[in-house]
Amino acid sequence: MIKQIEETTSYLQNKGFENPEIGIILGTGLGQLLNEIEIITEASYNHIPNFPTATVELHKGKLIYGILEGKKVVVMQGRFHVYEGYTLQDVTYPVRIMEKLGIKTLLVSNAAGAINLNFKKGELMLIEDHINLQGSSPLAFKGVELLGERFTDMSAPYNAEINTKFKAIAKANNITLHEGVYASVVGPQLETRAEYRMLKIMGADAVGMSTVPEIIVANHLNLKVAAVSVLTDECDPNNLKPVNIAEIIEMAAKAEPNMITLFKELIKSL
């Protein structure tokens, strides 16, 4: 993997990806942040050596480099999921590349279902901790110790200082920003009523199919990390209706301006 990382990094550096400070992973329906970026260069995933290719229609599949609020950023427009048939090492490979390019901070967004019924769809949740239910670890491979500490500490995976800033920005801009625990499952099927009850008992406030693998690897690489979920549906097991993907996308779009405000103001303050 070290040889592959070097090859990929070299390709991107030759394309003009120069010393980004901040990495951003855009989740479902959150692509409008790109309109705020002064784009310098970009690369399609299918052209980048050793990169996986995005297969979900809602995820575009480009790595973008530019300036946002005066900072150099590298943005993943489209992410990878285990449910697409990728390994956890594939899913997290871009995080390793962004770190190699120079990022010190990783900001992640996703769409999630609200397990905590005090949280409403269209609102945002700052992730303060997580539960990994994806069945394995992106660090569970031979030679991982050559890339960082094998037994990575996860006592505080989300950066407290960044989270405090996010909360202050939300308050100043009158944005509802809950704080909670995100459970990451494999998917792609949605949960049953019994599974939603189990997740609630476990202490999850929201559930999704991404983010946690990237957070684990970011901690493995000693990056500062923060993540925000757009709550796109309410997962009430006693009143569960069939899933409406169009409505989920609509909710993500509704929450997008608030997410953009949070990310822009945070980057300005870093």
Automatic annotation (TrEMBL):
Its EC number is 2.4.2.1. Pfam families: PNP_UDP_1 (PF01048). Pathway: Purine metabolism; purine nucleoside salvage. Residues 21-268 form the Nucleoside phosphorylase domain. It comes from the Bacteria. Keywords: Glycosyltransferase, Transferase. One of its GO terms (biological process) is nucleoside metabolic process. SUPFAM superfamilies: Purine and uridine phosphorylases. Signal peptide: none annotated. The keyword Glycosyltransferase applies. One of its GO terms (cellular component) is cytoplasm. GO terms for molecular function: purine-nucleoside phosphorylase activity. InterPro entries: Nucleoside_phosphorylase_d (IPR000845), Nucleoside_phosphorylase_sf (IPR035994), Pur_Nuc_Pase_Ino/Guo-sp (IPR011270), Purine_phosphorylase (IPR011268). The keyword Membrane does not apply. Belongs to the PNP/MTAP phosphorylase family. The purine nucleoside phosphorylases catalyze the phosphorolytic breakdown of the N-glycosidic bond in the beta-(deoxy)ribonucleoside molecules, with the formation of the corresponding free purine bases and pentose-1-phosphate. NCBIfam families: PNPH, PNPH-PUNA-XAPA, PRK08202.1. This is Purine nucleoside phosphorylase.
